[in-house]
Amino acid sequence: MHRPLPEHVARRYNSPEGQLESMISEGHVHLGYWDASNPSSSYAAAAHKLTEIMIAKTHIQADQRFCDLGCGVGAPAMALAQAKQCYVDGITISSFQQASATARAQAQGMQGRTSFIADNVLTMPFDDNTYDGGWFFESIFHMGHREALHAAHRVLKPGAALLIADLTALPTITPEFTLFAKDQMYSAFIAKEAYPELLAETGFELLDITNISSHVMPFLVPKIKDTIDTYKAEILKHLDKQVIEETVMTFQYMADNLEYVLVSARKL
Ligand SMILES: C[S@@+](CC[C@H](N)C(=O)[O-])C[C@H]1O[C@@H](n2cnc3c(N)ncnc32)[C@H](O)[C@@H]1O
Predict the structure, then answer these.
(1) Ligand 1 contacts CB of residue 53 (under 6 A)
(2) Model pTM?
(3) Mutate to test the pocket of ligand 1, among 7, 31, 93, 104 (most ligand atoms within 8 A of CB)
(4) Looking at the domain covering 6-267, what would its CATH class be?
(5) What single string gives the DSSP state of each residue in 32-81?
(6) pLDDT per position as a tens digit, 186-219
(7) What whole-number distance in Å separates Cα of residue 62 and Cα of residue 65?
(8) Long-range contact list for 240-246, CB < 8 A, 24+ apart?
(9) Is the CB of 70 under 6 A from ligand 1?
């Protein structure tokens, strides 16, 4: 399986498209979660809800240290630090995102609890056995799963919990989509069935895999269309119409080929 190049991923999140994405998702640069309690939620509100679900799955205690591996513009890290009163170090490959996360933390008075660096998770400058918990929140498919898990294993303390929100390949994934994911999304998706062996090989105990696809994937196209309508004037200042059409097409393609899982593991 190919491994996305970090410079391609950085370029994607530094681009006008990547910058706009963080604006319309109100800082939660991941997909949304919809259920009976929020069927009419906007994309951004549902993305925030998925952050809340991830936070509820962490076991981090007050004043412990947490690493956010692929942290976007910092909104999930700040929500976690606020909810759990822990310290969060975030790392993103994008210099735009690091600057944006740092500015957000300052604006919210969170700079004492959160810090953000622009670097590659696979070679991150954090010490061994440092963190009491960590997550890959919709980021591991940009890194190469095995290499990313080895990197997380190094910086986590023994016994620390790792959470992974991942898009995984449906059994019916097409070769055309796999190629599109490589060339246009700078991503390599694995099947959820690969997780038990992969985690065992990289020194983790698998605790749980929850498939939340039905709360995410069917909503993608209608919700992204609503969001585009809401922000159309702003979006058209930065991107042309074709990029908007391609975004809707990409969401449809993802819904047809991917599922969404939340994985809980523990460093052995
Ligand atoms: C879909 S965004 C998710 C951002 C954030 N976790 C969130 O939920 O808002 C993917 C993130 O992974 C980061 N990323 C991808 N590859 C990376 C790498 N090799 N090292 C550091 N960050 C990486 C990107 O910079 C981006 O912040």
Answers:
(1) no
(2) 0.97
(3) 93
(4) alpha beta
(5) ----TT-TT--HHHHHHHHHHHHHHH----TT-EEEEES-TTSHHHHHHH
(6) 999 999 999 999 999 999 999 999 999 999 999 9
(7) 9
(8) 243/17
(9) yes
